[in-house]
Amino acid sequence: MFDYRKFLLRRIKPRVVDTVALPFPMNDWSRFERFLILGSENGRYVARERALNAEHIPAVLRSLEVGGAHAVSVIEEKSLASRAPSNAPAVFALALAAVHGNAAVRRAAVAALPRVCRTTDHLFQFAEAAQGLRGFDPTTKRAVALWYAEQKTDDLARQIVTSRQRAGWTHRDLIRLSQPLAADPARKALYDWVATEKTSSALPSVVKGYVALQHAKTAEEAATLIAAHDLPIETVPKHWRRDEKVLRAVVERMPVKTLLRELGRLTATGVLKSSGEGLNLVLPSLRDITRVWHSHLHPFAFLLALDDYRKGSDNAEKLTWEPLPQVVDALEAAFHAAFANADTTGKRLLIAVDGSYSMGASHVVGTGLSARDAVAAMALVSASIERECHLAAFTVPSGSDEQRLLPVNINATMRLPEALREIANYSSDSVDCALPMLCALENDLKVDAFVVYTDSEVRAKSVHPALALREYRARSGIAAKLVIAGVASGGFSIADTNDGGMLDVIGFNEKTPRLISDFIRG
């Protein structure tokens, strides 16, 4: 068998022209668009929230300088498409445009703000970014005033009571600084209440309900107000969030995404018991396939919720509970039902997973979920929804000192525990990220995208993955892509920053699978 590892070690460059080996060249515009999706220009996505810095995104600054108002339209287009894991990069880029030296760029940024910042959380992010760049200058004031002016009064009132502050900013701060005009008595009463907490009969109904809820004397009164004004759990005072009657009123109108987050609290406070009305409220939401589909949540979101619930504690909220088997079963069923929400790439994939011991001992960053559970779940989802998907595991066969890739028997008929047992059969040391491309070359596999799932042991070994990928492209004639996901990693750098067909994923969350699918398709 031809040894591609030794062959590549003797080579400096592929023998074919660069346009074949590097089919996704990068320029300032493509780096600008990459930042709007990934939050970085360098082909690296970090799943955890992090601060953005203008010094680290020169291509974005150059694109604003050269593209002017057109660059703002690109920001708006990417934000409205809602394909990025976070809207924060688009909001930050818009803040850069709002403080730009070109007046036309600033005007375009002001006009785009209500469409890019579609929630109050986005607005607070914009205010924080603008403050850090140039302070709350006249352009920022006009933009924020326009945002308030373009919201419908009732919608704005609901957003104000639901999302009161973020990053140290409040609506009181922004309304005081921007001085938006009040077009009607209800809007004026709303602004006055935000500024002074002064109530009046002209206030929108949801604000009246919110104010009354903060002063409710009994659980019955609080539950009645929640039902009458359709108040979400974010508006409920902390001392009522442990009351069974109050939580039962909230659960009746709770979206699936919020319900997943609140299952532990609902069990700890007694709303959910081994039998009774509470289970009858919650279980239909988790067992209803249509509701699961309409939630648009990836299976990974249900897996995270299942893992959190099984732990039986929430240290931040100082809650403990005994997990209910009925809820665990419902979450497992919802995990599989949500496969319909996962995006199919329609491409030929080779997915290589790490089954080493460290995968069971390490955890997805920011969660209690083991890296092995996360990787097994992603392998199972891909095996279930992709048309052509080779699944393999890194392993060192008995009697050998060389790492190999061997086929993994995971298919659409399996449940998650079966997939976990299958991956646990393979063991290796830190993975060789070039191996999938070398394996595809040796076996003449036609692959559009290679995906490597591992924990935090991410490194290049004897052959750099970028070189192996270029060689595979050159010899196969396929413009293949490579994704390396270190689900428990705090940081690594494998992707060639000049190659738009390589992506490093650092950490993992419920939005990451869609990002990977979009990257492979695009």
Characteristics:
two-stranded antiparallel sheet; seven-stranded mixed beta sheet; Rossmann fold; 522 residues
Average per-residue pLDDT, rounded, comes to 91
CATH class of the largest domain: Alpha Beta
Per CATH, what is the topology of the largest domain?
Rossmann fold
Runs in which pLDDT lies below 50 for 5 or more consecutive residues are 12-20
Largest sheet: 7 strands, mixed
Domain TROVE: 15-347
InterPro entries: TROVE2, TROVE_dom, TROVE_dom_sf, vWA_Ro60, vWFA_dom_sf
Keywords: Cytoplasm, Metal-binding, Ribonucleoprotein, RNA-binding
Protein name: TROVE domain-containing protein
Topology:
Elements: H1 4-9, H2 18-21, H3 28-38, E1 44-46, H4 58-67, H5 69-81, H6 88-98, H7 103-116, H8 120-134, H9 138-150, H10 153-162, E2 165-166, E3 169-170, H11 171-178, H12 185-196, H13 205-214, H14 219-229, H15 244-251, H16 256-268, H17 277-287, H18 289-294, H19 299-311, E4 313-314, E5 319-320, H20 325-337, E6 348-354, H21 357-361, H22 371-385, E7 388-395, E8 404-407, H23 416-423, H24 435-442, E9 449-454, H25 465-476, E10 481-486, E11 502-506, H26 512-521
Parallel strand pairs: 1-11, 6-7, 6-9, 9-10, 10-11
Antiparallel strand pairs: 2-3, 4-5, 7-8
Subcellular location: Cytoplasm
GO cellular component, one term: ribonucleoprotein complex
Protein name: TROVE domain-containing protein
